[in-house]
Design goal:
It contains six helices and 36 strands. The chain is mainly beta. Residues 1-17 form the signal peptide.
Length: 556
C-alpha cells in the first residue's frame, strides 16, 4: 500500500472537476499513475511523505484542503488520520471520492456519458467531521481506489495544527501509547506541594529508551496537547526550546526562564504574565511531587509521554488541585517594655504573628535582627503602616489613637533558622536598647599589625556606654561559618571567659571624634583571630558589632 499527499487550496467544485478529468477506475493502475503523475508535476514541492507528522498553518475563515490517494494493493486498505489542534478549536472533515461501480472498464472513457454534476453528487461522501480542540484520530478501511479530501477551517483566529496520516498501521506508532486509564491521580496535597501519579504508558514498558514523561504545571487551565501548551506559552511572549521534551541537549534560555537540574530531573520555569509555567521531565518515573508551590492556589497539571527520537507526544487527561491554605500563625501578645525573642524555622515555621493594643497615641517598635533574614509587616487596625526587610537594629515610631490594634507579622525569607528580638513600648518609654553609632563595623589597621598584636577601632556615641572586647582564635576553614552563624543578639554570657580582652566606657559629644581604638597584645604570630565588640545600653541589653577577622604577621 502506497500513499501520496498533495496540497490543494481550490474550491471543492474545481477539485472535483480535476478529479473527474482523471477518472479513477478500480483498479486501473495506468489511470492512477496518470492522476498521480499530473498532480505530481504541479505540486511536487508540497508532497508530504507517508508516516510523518506535518504542521499546517491556517488563516482565519480561509479553508485549507489537502488530499491523498490510496492505491489498492490488497482487498482492504487500512489508514489513519490524526489531527492535533495547537491553539483554538478548529473544524475538519474527511470526504471520499470513489469511481462509480460498473463504470471502471479500462480505457472505456467514451461509455461514461453521465453528467459531471451527477457524478460529483454520487461519488463524493463525507465520512468524518469534527469541531473542537481535542486530538482526534480517524481510522478507516478503503476497499477501492479512492481519493480522500481533508478540509480544515479555523473560525476564531490564525492558528496551526499538526496532521499525521499513515497507511502503515501494523509496524508501530509515531505517537507513544496511552494506558487504558489515562487519568492523572492526585495522591497528596500540602501547603506548597502536590504529589501526582499516573499509570505507565505501554510505550515505556516496551521501549524505555527514548521515551520519557514530561509534566506541565500552570495556574490557567489544562492543555490537550503538547503543541497547545507550547503555543500558549509563546503567546505570552516566551520563546521555547523546540519541544518541551527537553532531551537534555543544551540550548540558550530566555531571560524569563529558569532551568533547574536536580536528581536527574530537568525543570524549566517560565515567568509569564499569568503566573509561572513549569516544565519538568522526570524520565520514566510515574510519580512526582511538585515542590515550591504557593499556598491556597489552584494549579493545573498535564502529563505528556514523549518520544525523544521523533518529538511526537501523547497527552494524559489533565487534572487540577488547590494547595492547602497556609496555617494561621500563632498570635503572641506584646506587652509594654517587654522584649520577646522570636525564632523562626525557615523550613517548618516561616511566619510568626504578634499583636499589641496601644494604650498611648505614640508607639515605638524596636527590632533587633539576631540571625538570618526576616521581613516585618506592621498593620494598624488592618491597614499597612510599615513593611521592610530587617537589618541590624531597626526602630519604628508610629502615631495613632488610643486602643489601636497593631499586628506584627514576621516572615523568614530563607530556609535556615532566623531570629529577632522585638520590643513595643510607648514613645516616651525609656529605651531598653542602647543608642547606636552610625556604623557597627570594626576597623583594623594593617600597618599597625605585628606578630604579637593587632590594633582595632570602632565608633561610639554621644551617650556614655560600656564596650567589651572579645577575641577568639580560629582556623582558615572556620571563617565563613563563624561569620554566618553568629548570633548578633547574643551577649558576652555566651563566650568563654578566656576570650574576654577588656571592657571600657567611652563617649564624645562631638560625633566626629566619637572613635576609640584598642591594641590587643599577647597574640601568636601568623594566626587568625576573630574580634567582637559588645555595646551595652542603660538597661544592660547588648548590641554586637560586626565581627572582624584579622591575621597577625608571620614574620616581624
Amino acid at each position: 500500500l502506497k500513499m501520496s499527499w498533495f496540497w490543494l487550496d481550490l474550491p471543492l467544485h474545481l477539485l472535483m472537476a480535476t478529479c473527474l478529468c482523471h477518472s479513477i477506475k478500480a483498479p486501473t493502475t495506468s489511470s492512477q499513475q496518470s492522476l498521480k503523475g499530473n498532480l505530481f508535476n504541479f505540486y511536487h514541492s508540497l508532497i508530504l511523505a507517508d508516516g510523518k507528522e506535518t504542521t499546517i498553518h491556517l488563516l482565519k475563515d480561509i479553508p485549507k484542503r489537502y488530499y491523498f490517494v490510496l492505491e489498492e494493493g490488497r482487498a482492504l486498505a487500512p489508514f489513519s488520520v490524526t489531527v492535533t489542534p495547537c491553539d483554538v478549536p478548529i473544524e475538519w472533515s474527511i470526504l471520499v471520492y470513489k469511481s462509480p461501480p460498473g463504470k471502471a472498464a479500462p480505457g472505456d472513457h467514451d461509455t461514461q456519458e453521465v453528467s459531471k454534476s451527477h457524478k460529483a453528487s454520487s461519488m463524493v461522501s463525507t465520512i468524518f467531521n469534527y469541531k473542537g480542540n481535542s486530538v482526534e484520530t480517524y481510522m478507516g478501511m478503503s476497499s477501492h481506489s479512492a481519493l480522500y479530501l481533508l478540509e480544515f477551517l479555523s473560525t476564531e483566529r490564525d492558528t496551526h495544527i499538526t496532521v499525521y496520516l499513515t497507511s502503515d498501521t501494523t509496524s508501530g506508532h509515531l505517537y507513544p501509547e496511552l494506558p487504558g486509564d489515562p487519568r492523572i491521580d492526585v495522591i497528596g496535597i500540602g501547603h506548597t506541594t502536590v504529589t501526582l501519579a499516573w499509570k505507565h504508558s505501554p510505550s515505556v514498558l516496551q521501549h524505555s529508551e527514548g521515551i520519557q514523561y514530561c509534566l506541565l504545571v500552570n495556574e490557567k487551565h489544562n492543555y490537550k496537547s503538547l503543541c497547545a501548551a507550547e503555543t500558549a506559552i509563546r503567546s505570552s511572549g516566551m520563546k521555547l526550546p523546540p519541544t518541551i521534551a527537553l532531551s537534555l541537549s543544551p540550548y540558550l534560555l530566555e531571560p524569563q526562564q529558569v532551568m533547574i537540574l536536580s536528581n536527574s530531573e530537568l525543570s524549566i520555569i517560565n515567568k509569564v504574565s499569568s503566573g509561572e509555567v513549569r516544565q519538568v521531565c522526570m524520565g520514566t518515573k510515574n510519580t512526582y511531587t511538585v515542590p515550591n508551590l504557593s499556598p491556597s492556589t489552584q494549579y493545573y497539571f498535564d502529563v505528556f509521554i514523549v518520544n525523544l527520537l521523533t518529538n511526537a507526544s501523547a497527552a494524559y487527561t489533565g487534572t487540577f488541585a488547590r494547595t492547602l491554605k497556609e496555617p494561621e500563625p500563632k498570635v503572641t501578645e506584646l506587652k509594654d517594655g517587654k522584649v520577646i525573642h522570636v525564632v523562626l524555622d525557615g523550613k517548618k515555621q516561616k511566619f510568626y504573628s504578634l499583636q499589641y493594643q496601644a494604650r498611648h497615641k505614640k508607639i515605638h517598635f524596636t527590632f533587633q535582627l539576631c540571625r538570618g533574614q526576616i521581613r516585618v509587616h506592621i498593620t494598624r487596625n488592618g491597614k499597612t503602616v510599615a513593611s521592610e526587610n530587617l537589618s541590624g537594629l531597626r526602630y519604628f515610631s508610629l502615631k495613632g489613637k488610643l486602643l489601636d490594634t497593631y499586628s506584627v507579622q514576621l516572615r523568614s525569607t530563607e530556609e535556615s533558622n532566623s531570629s529577632v528580638k522585638v520590643l513595643a513600648s510607648p514613645h516616651f518609654h525609656k529605651p531598653l536598647f542602647p543608642l547606636l553609632p552610625e556604623s557597627l563595623k570594626i576597623k583594623s589597621f594593617s600597618k599597625l599589625r605585628t606578630c604579637r598584636s593587632v590594633t582595632i577601632a570602632w565608633l561610639g556615641t554621644q551617650e556614655e556606654s560600656k564596650y567589651c572586647v572579645y577575641r577568639k582564635r580560629i582556623e582558615e576553614d572556620q571563617i565563613w561559618r563563624e561569620l554566618q552563624s553568629a548570633d548578633r543578639c547574643s551577649g558576652p554570657e555566651s563566650r568563654h571567659k578566656s576570650e574576654k580582652v577588656l571592657c571600657k566606657y567611652f563617649y564624645d559629644l562631638n560625633l566626629q571624634r566619637a572613635v576609640t581604638t584598642e591594641t590587643i597584645k599577647g597574640l601568636q604570630a601568623g594566626t587568625l583571630y576573630l574580634f567582637d565588640v559588645y555595646l551595652f545600653g542603660p538597661s544592660g541589653i547588648p548590641v554586637r558589632y560586626h565581627s572582624k577577622v584579622v591575621k597577625t604577621r608571620k614574620k616581624c
